[in-house]
Amino acid sequence: MNFLRLNLLYIYYILLHLTLAGSSFVQIGDAISVNIDSSVSYKNSSNVIRTQSNELSDGIYRFSPGALITFGARDTSLDMSLKVIYDFLEYNKYSDLDTELLKVTLNGSYDPNPILNNIFSYSYNEGENAISEFSTGAQDVLVETVTERASFLTQYNYSPKLSLSLGANLVDLSYDTHADRLAAKETFNIPIKLIYRYSEKLNIVYGVSITDTKVGERLSLNYPKYDTDSSYYNIGLNGEILPKLTGSFDLGYRTLSFSYTNKDFNSFGATSNLTWQVTPKFKTSLRASRDFDAAGSGSTYRSTNGNIFSIYTINSDYKLSLNYGRTLKFFRADAFRGTQSRYETLDSVALKLHYIPSVNYSLSAGYRYIESDAQSDYILKEYNITARVKY
């Protein structure tokens, strides 16, 4: 991995040199273009490791050189983009927490004809999280994670009124540090949707989603690995639902079964991704879901998530955004694992001012407050400022 990182940094240096020495981007033939997408930020955190007591406050510098490579010539059916970002994190007081994180994202589409549309993506994301975020009860360390995602979605337009879509999604979460204290997770999901075009702006969607999750063993507590199988039967809408309300939502029923002697865990389910254009300068987005998931502790839980994001355009250069999110987790009692039923909640509020004088560069400054009521309670306050350059 170190060899890969060094090569990526070397390639980035060459691309940056070529870009700044030439025009606003590097064009290689008719099909490939290269853009620089980099940022630098400073964050002051009141609780770096997210603990209930003995909080560690520190200032964190992040330098994130990145490049966006776009593939796709005119009049071709294939388009792809590859984005590579390398984060350098440096702590002002606790230098032992310094780290480097790699993020790679590939997105693409292939539309050979008007009847068949295909979308695919892959991402590799190295992250850093407090162990208290994984519902374990521990509060003493930061954990380095690796998340890989791959997805493919194909849609067949049978007629002007009727379409069928079929997809496959894979998510693999593992831990580079403290792996014995946490349970890895691999999720494979197959969504099937029948889409009926009710009007030019609105679709009715009937769906079935099948999910298989493999939860790894937690060695420190001798928790064994196990599998779960889940199905989600739903109906929903997407498109322009009301004159100022666009997006998608669905409602349905979720079933969950276990590979060991544990009774099924069934529940009402929902997802939504809606945007309300209140005025020409003010819009609000609502994202919500009710689903099943597995925590780093190795326990499966029912999750209810809601997030409201509002943004107000002050003028052509300035925007103000407010974000509120709430997560509720329900862990059912499990006699086999010796755990009791419990609830966990997480509330987050963020206010940010954006200065965007050009598409090539921007500046933002904000404040975030997080309160966790879980096995590992904590309060977090953060001030941050970020400068971003695209070229």
What does this structure look like?
The protein is mainly β and 391 residues long. Helix content is 5%, strand content 66%. The protein has one helix and 20 strands. It has one helix at residues 2-21; strands spanning 26-28, 32-45, 58-64, 66-71, 78-91, 99-113, 116-130, 142-157, 162-175, 185-197, 202-215, 226-242, 245-258, 267-279, 282-294, 300-313, 318-331, 342-358, 361-373, 378-390. A hairpin with a 2-residue loop joins strand 6 (99-113) and strand 7 (116-130). The protein starts with a helix and ends with a strand. 16% of the residues are buried.
Secondary structure tally: strands? 20
Mean pLDDT metric:
90
Taking Cα atoms only, what radius of gyration do you get, to the nearest Å? 23 Å
Uncertain stretches of 5 or more adjacent residues: 18-24
SSE-based structural type: mainly beta
**Biggest sheet, open or closed, and with what strands and sense?**
20 strands, antiparallel
Oligomerization category of the chains in this entry: single chain
Q: How much β-strand is present in the residues?
A: over 45%
The shape, in one word, is: globular
Share of helix, binned = under 10%
Count of helical regions:
1
Following the backbone from N to C, one meets helices and strands in this order, namely: HEEEEEEEEEEEEEEEEEEEE
Ends apart, CA distance between termini: 28 Å
Task: From the structure above, extract its key features.
391 residues; mainly beta; globular
What is the secondary structure topology, with strand pairs?
Layout: H1 2-21, E1 26-28, E2 32-45, E3 58-64, E4 66-71, E5 78-91, E6 99-113, E7 116-130, E8 142-157, E9 162-175, E10 185-197, E11 202-215, E12 226-242, E13 245-258, E14 267-279, E15 282-294, E16 300-313, E17 318-331, E18 342-358, E19 361-373, E20 378-390
Antiparallel strand pairs: 1-2, 2-3, 2-4, 2-20, 3-5, 4-5, 5-6, 6-7, 7-8, 8-9, 9-10, 10-11, 11-12, 12-13, 13-14, 14-15, 15-16, 16-17, 17-18, 18-19, 19-20
